[in-house]
What we know:
- The chain is mainly α.
- α5 packs antiparallel against α14 and α13 packs antiparallel against α14.
- It is globular and about 65 Å long.
Amino acid sequence: MNSSNEKITFIQATVVLTMTIIGVGIVTLPRVSAEEVQTPDIWISMILGGGISIVVAFFITKLCLQFKGMTIYQFSPILVGKWAGFVFNLFIIMYFILVAGYQARSMAEVLRAYLLDKTPIEVVIIVYIAVGVYIVISGIYSIVKLLQIYFPVVLVFILLMLALSITNVDFNNLRPVLGGGFIPVLKGIKPTTLSLAGIESYLILMAYMHQSKKAMKAAAVGIFIALFLYILIVIAVIGALTVDEVRLLTWPTLELVKSIEMKVLLLERFESFFIILWVITTFTSFIMNFHFASLGLSQVFKKAYKPFVYGLIPFVYLCAMYPEDINGVFKLGGYIGNMAIVVAGIIPILLLIIAFIRRKRNAKN
């Protein structure tokens, strides 16, 4: 795949990162953040979390620029040796598989709660994975083009949802600013930063970029767009429902959307339209993670790509069905968040330090 003449442009890289970040967090971020912060200052935590994501993106792009045209699966054995690189790669592949399974299960839980209450959740997940495999089997460039088509639709719909819900927002619910001090804000940095997880996709994506030197700029723009949308959503949800109520709701964003039909009489069950667009959003993130896991196995074992796509289907399904209930789904999300810290933060920084030491040693020799 690296030898293809087709390359990912700056705009495509920005779109891919934005669509990879935006996903399940649209409906879960307000509740998770409210549980940790317990004050209306969640938006401040998000800004700080966005700054951390930018720093992580800097380290990742610096690392990948030293191995142009190579994914982390290919250059990690060069830096740390065959077996240590194999362990790193296996951990990263496992992370992408878990994320794909988590996204499939979260999507199915929302559909069961609001639309398909009598449909077995197993059927929903199987159909979701099957449709994902249909596009993943075509490779990275087909996926990128699909994300380009979905991006403006998702962006316009989210902004429309926020515009329609503005009449329900009471900005008094967002005050006082820093009323509980700065400690609650610091507690909210971790969940908000994890909601912006997706920058680790650059560990693979940069190998296919046409202008890899602009990768940092594309990453900054992509993170900013996702962060801006998330902040608007959190402000709308907290402003309409208050922090105390949001902490008690499973899907607070959907509760906000349900209130829109009371104000806009021409739209009945507006949440149905929202869920459809939200499923598209989670689907784009799902297929990217599915692809990264399949590509990783293909490059680690140096075998054809397509058999691994089909071979991962049962593993993604088992990951999706592992949680017993919705609380188990949220716990799985917490575990994945901790893994994201390792994949996006610790491993790239460690490899960058090793690359720097080796470069200095080679210069002396």
